[in-house]
Amino acid sequence: MVLESEGYLDESCLSAAVMPQEGVRVRLDMPRTDDLADIVFLANNRKIASHLATMPHPFSLEDARRMVQRSAILNSTHASFAIRMAATGRLIGQATWSAIEPGGPVQVGYWLGEPFWGQGFATEALQMLVDHAFAQGDMRELLADCRVTNPASRRVLVKCGFQYRDQSMARSLGAGGSVPIERFALERSVWRALKHWGRVA
User: Fold this and answer.
1) pTM (2 decimals)?
2) Bridge partner list, 10
3) What is the pLDDT of residues 145-192, one digit of tens each?
4) What is the 3-class SS of the chain, one letter each residue?
5) Of 150, 83, 89, which is closest to residue 123 (Cα–Cα)?
6) Phi, psi of 103, rounded to the nearest 5 degrees
C-alpha cells in the first residue's frame, strides 16, 4: 500500500477513457456495486488504513459506495480502478492516479486486501496503472509516497521504476495523525526506457 491522495476531480469531464490492459494474474477495471461487500470486507482493516492518507477506519458500506461512485470519473487528471484477480474477477484492492490539484503533480496510490499481500499482485497492478497514467495523461512524472514502516510498498515502487526523492511527513486519516513517509518519483523518460528495455530483453 502507498499513501494515496484524494486528488483533484473535474466532474464535468466524464469520458470513456481507455481501460488498462489486462495483466497476467490481475486486471484493472471499474469497481461495481456488486463489489461493495468485498470492498468493505477487505478495506475495513486498520493495517491498511494506517498506511494510507485518506482511508477511514472503520470503513463502512457508505465509504465503499463513495469509492465506487468516485471511480466512475475518468478523465485526463484522474483514474481509479478495482484490482481484480484475472482468472476469477474477484476484487482484491484499488489503484488510483490523480492530480493533487489542477495542473499540479500526479500521485499514484494503491492498496490490497491483507489476504493478497506478498504475492506480487501489487507490483503487477502498479505497472499497469503507471502505463495507463502515462498513456492517458501528459504528466512529466508520477509521484508516490509510502510510510517508512512499509518496506513492502517501497520494494513495489522500486520494482516499478520509482526513484527515492526524500522523506517528509503526511497526514493519515487511518493512523490518526501525521506519519513519516518516503517520497518517490518516476519520470516519463525513465518509464519509456524501462518499457524499451523490457521489449528487447
Assistant:
1) 0.88
2) none
3) 999 999 999 999 999 999 999 999 999 999 999 999 999 999 999 999
4) CCECCCCCCCCCCCCCCCCCCCCCCEEEECCCHHHHHHHHHHHCCHHHHCCCCCCCCCCCHHHHHHHHHHHCCCECCEEEEEEEECCCCCEEEEEEEEECCCCCCEEEEEEECHHHCCCCHHHHHHHHHHHHHHHHCCCCEEEEEEECCCHHHHHHHHHCCCEEEEEEEEEECCCCEEEEEEEEEEEHHHHHHHHHHHHHC
5) 83
6) 75, 5
